[in-house]
């Protein structure tokens, strides 16, 4: 599954939404987020519009049975509107920690730390 996850991360770093979709089950469950592959892809499309140079770098990956624990760093420059915030041209860099369940070559469950607060804080958004 290490190589499979590397392929997924590569699709993400290429911003290839069609390829990303092929890694995610249509009924994927996401803790604290809307479920389903469409919501997953829409969230990434929103991120890529706001940060057209967004990239992830794998720090650590642990695989056990059908589970993946991933620590990645995401970074990019805020050049487009993101969640109602006009472009700031600020570069952000955040740590992400995620747990996944994989079945039949697709993500079926996701749980992870909410990085929205850290990202918006780095953009200088007050009151987050």
TrEMBL record:
Alphabetical list of Pfam families matching this protein: SnoaL (PF07366)
GO terms under biological process: polyketide metabolic process
Gene3D superfamilies recorded: 3.10.450.50
InterPro entries reported for this sequence: Cyclase_SnoaL-like, NTF2-like_dom_sf
Protein's UniProt name: Putative ester cyclase
Organism per entry: Microbacterium kyungheense
């Amino acid at each position: 599954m290490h190589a499979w996850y590397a392929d997924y991360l590569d699709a993400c770093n290429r911003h290839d939404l069609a390829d990303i979709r092929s890694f995610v089950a249509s009924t994927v469950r996401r803790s604290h987020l809307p479920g389903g592959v469409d919501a997953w892809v829409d969230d990434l499309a929103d991120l890529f519009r706001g940060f057209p140079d967004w990239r992830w770098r794998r720090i650590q990956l642990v695989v056990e049975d059908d589970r993946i624990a991933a620590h990645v760093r995401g970074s990019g420059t805020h050049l487009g509107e993101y969640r109602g915030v006009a472009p700031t041209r600020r570069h952000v860099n955040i740590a992400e920690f995620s747990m996944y369940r994989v079945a039949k070559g697709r993500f079926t469950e996701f749980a992870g730390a909410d990085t929205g607060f850290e990202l918006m804080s780095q953009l200088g958004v007050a009151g987050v």
